[in-house]
Amino acid sequence: MQELIGRLTPLDAEATETLKVVTYFDALMSAGLGLDAIVRAAASLTGTAAGARSAGRFARSDAHGSRLPDSDLPPDRLTVATQDGEVWIEREGPAHSNDAMVLERLALTVAYAQRQGPQSKAALAIAIDPHRAANEREGALSRLGLRPASQVRVVVGPAAFLASHASATTVPTANGLVSVTVLPDGADPDIPTPRGVGIAVRADEMWESLHSARLAYRLTDEETPVVDASELGVLLPAVDALLARQPEHADVLALARLDARTRHVLACIVTSDSIRSAAGLLHMHHSSVQARHEWLTERLGYDPRSAQGRARYEIATLAFKLGAVATR
């Protein structure tokens, strides 16, 4: 951006500061930059911190291009409201003569970037594709306003989400399309359920987060509409590896042979502190649940309440869900 300012400097004798600002932001529009990059450019131009909130996303940068947090915003910052947020600059002291024009053009540029859904979708589609060349992915990250080392998480949701989110794209799966978007690590995803949230990774490795988000999404159901891959820890990659090498493992098949009601009873037996507690949850007599426990132990080939049996049960249950879901 400093190079662009340098190219415009010779025009100062003939052009007004207004023309310089307009030309600067026109160049940003032509570049198809994302929110973070636009805000960094505005901060560079003004020589002070700048920020924006738009469509649920937040960006704030100092004049040197370093990302700033969303806390400790100065209350006297110069702001302009937009349709779905606001933009601002954080000038200390009196406002400069072109600050109002900068804010106006910043608001227009942010709004334009939000409307360029196809560009954002194309950039995201490239960024999540591990088969693309590294320079292609790097360019895509730049258009998304992301640095390669930025920590991000991919979120997978219903394909219908595309209608309400400009930067979401689609990814085909064996059972249909899903929507995909990427958020900074720690951001609250404003995405309808069900949704699967991937692990946090570097932006230049976001396909790893996509893979875990797709698995997490397939694990969602009415009782658990949001599944966060990071909360499953080592279980998710372990199940993924099991399904890749032995999808019809005996432990998984044993669960598949049970009907839904029996699997519910089994889950209560495994997760409860005691058989008596499980009986209370199931509204069954203690002796009946004890008999079910013994029958299930024989049926499964292991005691699901033992430490080793609990581990086998958890992995087999996740593998069963991933293998059984045919709509995601």
Coarse structural class: alpha+beta
- The share of residues in helices is 40-55%
Main beta sheet: strand number and arrangement?
6 strands, mixed
Radius of gyration, taken over Cα atoms and rounded to an integer in Å: 26 Å
Q: What does the overall shape look like? A: elongated
In DSSP terms, counting alpha (H) and pi (I) runs of 4 or more, how many helices? 14
The number of distinct structural domains comes to 3
The run of helices and strands is HHHEEEEHHHEEEEEHEHHHHHHH
Question: How many strand segments?
Answer: 10
Low-confidence stretches: 1-8
Q: β content, as a range?
A: 5-15%
What do these coordinates show?
The chain has 328 residues and is α+β, with helices and mostly antiparallel strands. The chain has 3 domains: 111 residues, no CATH class; 89 residues, no CATH class; 80 residues, Orthogonal Bundle (Arc Repressor Mutant, subunit A). It is 49% helix and 15% strand. It has 14 helices and 10 strands. A hairpin with a 2-residue loop joins β3 and β4. The longest helix is centred in the C-terminal third of the chain and has 18 residues. The N terminus is likely disordered.
Compact description:
This protein has 328 residues and is an alpha+beta fold. Helices cover 49% and strands 15% of the residues.
Descriptive terms for the model:
328 residues, alpha+beta, six-stranded mixed β-sheet, four-stranded antiparallel β-sheet, 14 helices, 15% strand, elongated, disordered N terminus
